[in-house]
UniProtKB/TrEMBL annotation:
Pfam families for the chain: ABC_membrane (PF00664), ABC_tran (PF00005)
Domain ABC transmembrane type-1: from-to ranges: 26-307
UniProt-listed Gene3D superfamilies: ABC transporter type 1, transmembrane domain (1.20.1560.10), P-loop containing nucleotide triphosphate hydrolases (3.40.50.300)
Native organism taxonomy: Bacteria, Pseudomonadati, Bacteroidota, Cytophagia, Cytophagales
Name of the molecule in the record: ABC transporter related protein
Organism: Leadbetterella byssophila (strain DSM 17132 / JCM 16389 / KACC 11308 / NBRC 106382 / 4M15)
Signal peptide: none
Sequence intervals crossing the membrane: 25-45, 65-85, 166-186, 246-265, 277-298
Top-level taxon in the UniProt lineage: Bacteria
Membrane association type: Multi-pass membrane protein
GO CC field: plasma membrane
Keywords, ordered alphabetically: ATP-binding, Membrane, Nucleotide-binding, Transmembrane, Transmembrane helix
GO BP of this protein: oligopeptide export from mitochondrion
Sample GO molecular function, one term: ABC-type oligopeptide transporter activity
């Protein structure tokens, strides 16, 4: 594995998140130093105890035991505060990173969500941040502890017996380094097993998600054999892994204990020849075990830093991306009158820059007028609305609102003046009341009720036993398409915007809810500049002007009657088609 230095620099940048908590971090470091030093005295004390047994010490056994107890107590206290302070710092710093990352993500432009998969973003917030949480405190602390143990411990060993130290260094580190390399190989294999298991889980996920299709095609056997095939692979790989793991563990045990035996053998010889006293041999052995432990620990730290490099690169990639919203700006700025002018617009989506989706668009909507956009699927109707909301930047032209260029406006102020009632209404998990109040956070109960009444939604809300507090969304009651749309209308009424966009549902509703929705929409459109994306032409006969889009261009415009007067026109044809379809259905 090659060490990635530029990535490591990214990881170092993480430490700026520790700055607000530097005092607590410093306390943690001091506690760490103290607890490391006390640990290092253990072998010395055990040696001293042996000396007492050899009757070569100036202390009594009880005195040494008392010092031991005091040191143990101190060690306990230092460790407690070390864990406490480091955890406080790391929890707070990771919470800061997480919230900052979420804030950054949610205020990113829409195009950001098109180029990043939601699952990937969630995993950055959840697992990548957890990976670096370790590095922020534990890894740094451990690195310090292991290096200190290694340096101080070895110095002590040289001091006790340089001959035995050289002998020891020729045995232990080799075993440990070999174990580290082998360990990495085993871990890599274990990851492979995990990956195959994940593939098996994807099969379960996909087949359960589209269970209706599986059943309709009676493909249960096919799915079963796909799943059992993958599970078979998992078993095979796991058994192979177990063999390597077995070899690894026996090698490690034999190597480690073999090393200890060799050191005892050589040390014993030195004692017999009078070059070393027994108590020093005991301290030596214990200290060597600590050193072996810290060598192994360094391997872990290296792996953890490697992991964190990838994670911090993925996090900074987002943190350092461009912001859409300046958070300092107030949300509810100036209220617009509602005049809109799409002026000489040309546009291609950033993900497909060579496909011009809109061109030569010039649409002027005086304040309070209602217009409809008509055209076949893919003509560019929704794109025009997305540009109005400034979800994307224009390549050419301007959208003027009350004569002011939308691109120069504060984006939150601009959006606070527009409401959209989308085709497919998605409700948030929560009560109906919360869902309506989403249009105006902080709205009073009476305001919500009033909006629901004006949206013709109260009649069905009141029929639920819990009324406004009925839970909707994934775990709540399922509302029909028409009911959801009326909630969205109530939400828009509450927002009370100057400009309104209605994206009509493509699927026809039953005639009763159709009437209720039409009424609600008319109520909503009253005194507002409205843009209706029309799919069913019957509903737009009374708008002030209809624009027919074809391949991104306005090809016809006028009132319903004016457009019908061109028998060869696209609009007239569309009306004819829909009329035929309707009559065909009736026949
Ligand atoms: N996010 C996007 N990235 C790239 N291309 C897109 C994106 N959204 C839409 N398009 C393309 O832009 C063109 C216009 O799409 P748009 O959604 O505006 O059409 P529409 O008239 O609203 O269609 P419909 O009536 O089916 O909703 C289509 O060719 C579509 O493939």
């Amino acid at each position: 594995m090659k060490f990635n230095f530029s990535g490591f620099k990214e990881t170092l940048k993480l430490f700026k998140f520790l700055v607000p908590y530097k005092a607590q971090y410093a306390v943690g470091i001091v506690m760490l130093i103290l607890s490391t030093l006390t640990t290092l005295t253990f072998p010395v004390l055990v040696g001293e105890m042996t000396k007492v047994l050899e009757r070569k010490s100036e202390f009594s056994l009880n005195e040494v035991a008392l010092i031991f107890a005091c040191i143990l107590l101190a060690q306990g206290i230092f460790s407690y505060f070390r864990v406490l302070y480091f955890s406080r710092v790391s929890e707070k710093a990771t919470a800061d990173i997480r919230t900052l990352l979420y804030k950054k993500m949610i205020s990113s432009p829409l195009s950001f969500f098109e180029s990043n998969r939601v699952g990937d973003l969630i995993s950055r917030l959840a697992s990548d941040v957890s990976v670096i949480q370790n590095v922020l405190t534990t890894t740094v602390a451990e690195l310090f502890r292991q290096v200190a143990t290694l340096v101080l411990g070895l110095t002590y060993l040289f001091f006790v017996s340089w001959k035995l130290t050289v002998f020891m260094l020729a045995t232990f580190p080799i075993t440990i380094l070999a174990a580290m390399v082998f360990g990495r190989f085993v871990r890599r294999m274990a990851r492979k097993v995990q990956a195959v298991l994940a593939e098996a889980n994807i099969i379960v996920d996909e087949s359960f998600q589209s269970i209706a299709a599986v059943k309709a095609y009676t493909n249960e056997d096919l799915e079963y054999s796909r799943y059992s095939g993958k599970i078979g692979q998992v078993v095979q790989l796991s058994i192979k892994l177990a063999k390597y793991r077995g070899v690894f563990i026996s090698f490690f045990v034999v190597g480690l204990f073999g090393g200890i035996c060799l050191v005892i053998w050589y040390g014993g010889n030195l004692v017999l020849e009078g070059h070393l006293i027994l108590s020093n041999l005991v301290s030596f052995l214990l200290q060597s075990l600590f050193i072996a432990g810290s060598l192994a620990g360094l391997g872990e730290i290296y792996a953890s830093i490697q992991r964190s490099i990838g994670a911090s690169e993925r996090i900074f990639e987002i943190l350092e991306d461009q912001d859409e919203i300046q958070w300092t700006n107030s949300k509810n700025g100036k209220k617009l009158e509602g005049e809109v002018h799409f002026k000489d617009i040309e546009f291609a989506y950033p993900s497909r820059p060579d496909v011009t989706v809109l061109k030569n668009i010039d649409i002027h909507i005086p304040k309070g007028q209602k217009i409809a956009l008509v055209g076949h699927s893919g003509a560019g109707k929704s794109t025009l609305v997305q540009l109005l909301m400034r979800f994307y930047d224009l390549q050419h032209g301007q959208i003027l609102m009350d004569g002011e260029d939308g691109a120069q406006m504060d984006i939150r102020q601009l959006r606070s003046n527009i409401a959209i009632v989308p085709q497919e209404v998605l409700l948030f998990g929560g009560s109906i009341r919360e869902n309506i109040a989403y249009g105006k956070p902080g709205a009073t109960y009476d305001e919500v009720i009033d909006a629901a009444r004006r949206a013709n939604a109260l009649e069905f809300i009141d029929r639920f036993p819990e009324g406004m507090d009925t839970l909707v969304g994934e775990r709540g009651v399922k509302l029909s398409g028409g009911q959801k749309q009326r909630i969205a209308i109530a939400r828009a009424i509450l927002k009370d915007p100057a400009i309104l966009v209605l994206d009509e549902a493509t699927s026809a509703l039953d005639s009763q809810s159709e009437v209720l929705i039409q009424e609600a929409m008319l109520e909503l459109m009253k005194d507002r500049t409205s843009i209706v994306i029309a799919h069913r032409l019957a509903t737009i006969q009374h708008v002030d002007k209809i624009y027919v889009l074809n391949h991104g261009e306005v090809v016809e415009s006028g009132t319903h009657d004016e457009l019908l007067s061109y028998p060869e026109g696209i609009y007239a044809n569309l009306v004819k088609l829909q009329f035929n379809a309707l009559t065909a259905k009736e026949i």
